[in-house]
Design goal:
Blueprint: E1 12-17, E2 21-22, E3 28-29, E4 34-35, E5 38-39, H1 40-47, E6 52-56, H2 63-70, E7 72-75, H3 84-93, E8 101-106, H4 114-127, E9 130-134, E10 140-148, H5 149-158, H6 171-175, E11 183-186, H7 199-208, E12 209-217, H8 224-240, E13 245-247, H9 260-282, E14 285-293, E15 299-308, E16 314-320, E17 336-337, E18 344-347, E19 350-354, H10 363-371, E20 376-380, H11 389-404, E21 407-411, E22 431-433, E23 439-442, E24 448-455, H12 456-465, H13 468-471
Parallel strand pairs: 1-6, 1-8, 6-7, 9-11, 12-13, 13-14, 15-17, 19-20, 20-21
Antiparallel strand pairs: 2-3, 4-5, 8-10, 9-10, 12-24, 14-15, 15-16, 18-19, 21-22, 22-23
Helix pairs in contact: 3-5, 10-11
Length: 478
């Protein structure tokens, strides 16, 4: 299964400086400090959307595993511990000539985002400039920047000592080589610009880092054994990428346009077992759309959540879709009974709300989840295709994020290529929407996987900047 976050480019590389023990952290290696289930170095490596990764620093006990998992090469500057510029020079020497752009990254920046690094690379490549993160105070983050490779090599060479080498020289000298028109900056979102040089910075990063969540856009086939293979593959891919939760689409058990009650009676229990077994096998929470029997021959459109809870118990949560799709000629209420309860889940310091598809048209549900403490809302979809429906979905996802100042995580079905029926079979377009309505990541119509590391500092900042939850007042009744 493809992953937009992990797409690699043969024309880009990353040089990650991972210098080892830090005196300000009591001699700890700040690149191996655990942050929300992964070390800082692993978080940086899995975020870099490039084809080549060079780590300059000791490989330690985990180096071989990290190198294999992230296609990385560990090297040491000569002499060891001779400073960041010497380390960068060593890393640049390992970059192949086929590369056109290089990300210069710090191994102690655990909240970097792939979409930001991609944007820095694209800007650097298009404008042939250095593109770097910079804070509101204008301070450039030297270890989060994209450079044209030739310009980086020239700058490194220009500051080399007359007697040779770069020992004890700072990165500031490198950036001093740039003219005013050679540097462009980008403001960070949330805590993505944070490094962990001090105990206070480490504590702040740990507070900001939420769980890693995968959004699996799969095709739901009428033959369940075909869907089962897609589910198994998606969960395995999510686990391999370090996700703590994977979200599958609405109606993963059986697609709309089929006998939902027959599927609920015959297959829900087996599907539940499958989801539970996959969650246990891979050690993550699996969230998937199913159907469960309801009164009067109908079903509940049920999202099941199975896996390891934060307290060590086994998670057994279910959400029944509240709003039913009686629109655009469809009549979901004829076969589906509505739910009545809101559901939230606590995971890795974050609270996640649950909604399903048509619920996205009802802002009150999202604001109610936010008032219950939700930082993000999981939204499985089987979106109906048709004129204007793609635009509506994108608009609604952004609006619900703004209404609630939550991150919205939407996983839709990938539509079958040859499907011509009227029932909702998805349009793709799974997406990660930031709490101020920004589209962070989005898929097309084909199956794929999105990965997002929740940044709780971003949600807190959004709610401070846009306090709509506090400002809402009861309106007069008609």
């Amino acid at each position: 299964m493809s992953s937009q976050l992990h797409e690699t480019s043969a024309t880009a590389a990353a040089v990650v400086l991972a210098g080892g023990a830090s005196s300000r952290l009591g001699g700890r290696d700040k690149t191996r400090v655990p942050i929300a289930g992964a070390t800082t170095l692993e978080r940086v490596l899995r975020t870099a959307p490039v084809g080549h990764r060079v780590v300059v620093g000791p490989d330690g006990d985990d180096g071989r595993e990290l190198a294999q998992r992230h296609d990385a090469r560990f090297v040491l500057e000569d002499p060891p511990r001779s400073g960041p510029l010497a380390a960068l020079a060593r890393g640049v020497a390992e970059v192949p000539g086929s590369v056109s752009a290089v990300l210069v990254l710090g191994g102690d920046m655990p909240l970097l985002r792939p979409e930001t690094l991609t944007a820095l690379l694209e800007t650097s490549t298009a404008e042939q400039k250095v593109a770097a993160l910079a804070g509101e105070d204008g301070r450039i983050q030297f270890l989060c920047a994209a450079w044209p490779l030739n310009r980086l090599r020239d700058a490194v060479t220009a500051v080399e000592r007359n007697e040779g080498g770069w020992a004890d020289l700072s990165l500031r000298r490198l950036y001093a080589q740039l003219g005013e028109d050679e540097l462009t900056t980008r403001a960070p979102n949330g805590a993505e610009g944070a490094d962990i040089d001090t105990p206070d910075a480490l504590e702040e990063a740990q507070r900001a880092a939420g769980p890693r969540i995968a959004l699996a856009q799969i095709e739901v086939d009428e033959a369940f054994e075909v869907t089962e293979r897609a589910v198994r593959s998606a969960v395995a891919s999510a686990a391999e990428a370090g996700a703590q939760l994977v979200l599958l689409p609405e109606a993963t058990l059986a697609p709309f346009g089929t006998d939902l009650r027959a599927a609920a009676d015959a297959s829900h229990e087996a599907f539940d077992r499958l989801v539970s077994e996959l969650a246990q096998e891979h050690g993550l929470i699996v969230v998937a759309g199913s159907f469960t029997p309801a009164d009067g021959g109908r079903v509940h459109n049920t999202v099941i959540l199975r896996g390891p809870a934060d307290d060590g118990s086994r998670l057994e949560l279910e959400y029944r879709k509240i709003h039913l799709f009686d629109a655009y000629g469809a009549k979901e209420s004829e076969t589906v009974a509505p739910g009545t309860e809101l559901v939230t889940l606590d995971l890795g310091g974050a609270r996640l709300g649950i909604a399903t598809c048509y619920d996205v048209r009802f802002p009150e549900q999202f604001t109610a989840l936010a008032r219950r403490g939700a930082h993000a809302v999981l939204l499985p979809l089987a979106w109906a295709d048709g004129s204007g429906k793609s635009e509506q979905l994108r608009l609604l996802l952004q609006a619900r994020a703004l209404d609630s100042t939550c991150v919205v995580l939407a996983a839709d079905q990938a539509p079958p290529a040859d499907y011509e029926g009227r029932a909702a079979r998805g349009i793709g377009q799974s997406a990660v929407i930031g709490p101020l309505g920004q589209i962070r990541q989005e898929l097309g119509r084909a199956p794929g996987l999105l990965l997002v590391d929740l940044d709780l500092a971003e949600v807190r900042a959004a709610r401070k900047a846009l306090p709509v939850l506090e400002h809402a007042v009861p309106l007069p009744q008609a």
